[in-house]
Design brief:
The chain has helices spanning about 1-20, 80-85, 150, 190-195, and strands at about 55-60, 65-70, 75-80, 90-95, 105, 110-120, 125-130, 130-135, 155-160, 165-175, 180-185, 195-205, 205-210, 215-220, 225-230, 235-240. It is mainly beta.
């Protein structure tokens, strides 16, 4: 009897434990999917540079400009302006350029007339006795050509920045050595009278007025067809076409 009671109490104490449902595992946190690796396509190799096509041919100041066209078969052609600027180009009929070598312009017998070295990408230069440094350049990377002496010749007014005229000048096309004659049109301000320009020339796209003593005033082209004296002084002077 005591054994039966003890067994009953044992069952009563364990029943609640049996009724409990087994614990379930907590849901595992959802992991974010890792971004897929971005595959970058390698850039295509640059196309090899070729001389075939039209290039600008000029002197260092770009006051003499024409076009040279490199053709297949190592032939080339200059436009009509080239012969006027550079008479020696009549000798040139072909060209050659080995890899990482000079660009050579050749006569009919294959002799080198000009030998150009590439000083920057797309810019070649060559020395020529009597001409200085000559250039062949890709016209796509160039700005407008500088004004020529023919374009600048004519009547001009020197004035202050306020617009007050201080002298009239005629930049003639009459040669005086390697420059051209200047005719002063009085009345002129004292500063211009003391300077007394007698000649002028174009230099690297700038207008240079020069006195008999060798003193010079230099003007560069600005906006509105106004030429500014450089370096600028306390009383800036402009040159404007009449």
């Amino acid at each position: 009897m005591r054994v039966l009671l003890a067994f009953a109490f044992l069952l009563a104490g364990t029943a609640p434990l049996a009724a409990q449902s087994p614990a379930t595992d907590a849901p595992s946190p959802q992991t974010e999917s890792e971004p897929s690796e971005v595959v970058t396509e390698p850039a295509p190799p640059a196309a090899p540079r070729t001389m075939i096509g039209s290039w600008e041919f000029s002197n260092a100041d770009r006051e003499k400009i024409c076009t040279v066209t490199f053709q297949t078969g190592r032939r080339l052609e200059f436009d009509q302006a080239c012969a006027g600027h550079f008479p020696f180009i009549r000798e040139i009929v072909g060209w050659s350029q080995a890899e990482n070598d000079f660009l050579r312009l050749l006569d009919v017998g294959g002799k080198t007339v000009l030998e150009f070295s590439e000083v920057e990408s797309g810019i070649f230069e060559a020395p020529r006795v009597g001409e200085g440094i000559l250039f062949i350049q890709n016209p796509a990377g160039l700005g407008p050509a500088p004004k020529t002496a023919e374009q600048i010749a004519g009547n001009w007014t020197l004035m202050l920045r306020t617009g007050k005229p201080i002298c009239g000048l005629t930049l003639s096309n009459t040669a005086v050595g390697e420059e051209f004659a200047v005719r002063v049109q009085p009345p002129c301000d004292a500063v211009v009278a003391r300077f007394a320009p007698t000649t002028w020339q174009m230099d690297r796209g700038e207008v240079v007025l020069r006195s008999a003593s060798g003193q010079s005033w230099r003007f560069e082209e600005g906006e509105g067809a106004k030429w500014h004296r450089i370096p600028e002084t306390a009383n800036p002077i402009l040159m404007v076409r009449k």
